[in-house]
């Protein structure tokens, strides 16, 4: 009798060893993928639904174990990218007050996250947000 996953037309899942998954995660990280992209690649191409169940560690923990995690948290980096996009938009559209408000809100979120990450030790104590450093980080 066929399994339910085969009945619905899904591919049967392939079993991998924890070391194989960890090796694949490291290779994908070295190729420049973010942890979320690595998770989607494992799911779509390798048939690994949940890396944590098989390895006992999250993808970010594996990257931290091997020293491949970025020096800045992802949520802060995404907000900085958003602020740079808004800043470039406001250079060309200086009367767009909605964009100006969005930029102000993004900068305030960045400053709050910065103080949180400085208190928790994930970010250097001397790091400050400026539009110039933000533009350099995004490039």
Automatic annotation (TrEMBL):
- GO CC aspect terms: cytosolic small ribosomal subunit
Which CDD domains does the record match to this protein?
S15_NS1_EPRS_RNA-bind (cd00677)
Citing just one GO molecular function, the answer is: small ribosomal subunit rRNA binding
Q: What UniProt keywords are attached to this protein's entry? A: Ribonucleoprotein, Ribosomal protein
- What GO terms in the biological process aspect are recorded for it? translation
Gene3D superfamilies, per the entry: 4.10.860.130, S15/NS1, RNA-binding
Instruction: Look up the domain of life of the source.
Output: Archaea
InterPro entries in alphabetical order: Ribosomal_uS15 (IPR000589), Ribosomal_uS15_arc_euk (IPR023029), Ribosomal_uS15_N (IPR012606), uS15_NS1_RNA-bd_sf (IPR009068)
The identity of this protein, by name, is 30S ribosomal protein S15
Annotated source species: Candidatus Iainarchaeum sp
């Amino acid at each position: 009798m066929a399994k339910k996953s085969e009945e619905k037309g899904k591919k049967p899942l392939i079993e991998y060893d924890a070391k194989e998954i960890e090796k694949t995660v490291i290779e994908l990280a070295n190729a420049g993928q973010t942890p979320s992209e690595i998770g989607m690649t494992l799911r779509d191409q390798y048939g690994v639904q949940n890396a944590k169940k098989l390895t006992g560690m999250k993808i970010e923990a594996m990257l931290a174990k091997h020293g491949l995690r970025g020096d800045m948290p992802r949520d802060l980096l995404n907000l900085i990218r958003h602020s740079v996009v808004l800043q470039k938009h406001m250079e060309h559209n200086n009367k767009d007050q909605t964009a100006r408000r969005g930029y102000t809100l993004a900068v305030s979120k960045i400053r709050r996250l910065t103080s949180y990450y400085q208190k928790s030790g994930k970010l250097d104590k001397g790091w400050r947000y400026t539009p110039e450093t933000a533009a350099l980080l995004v490039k």
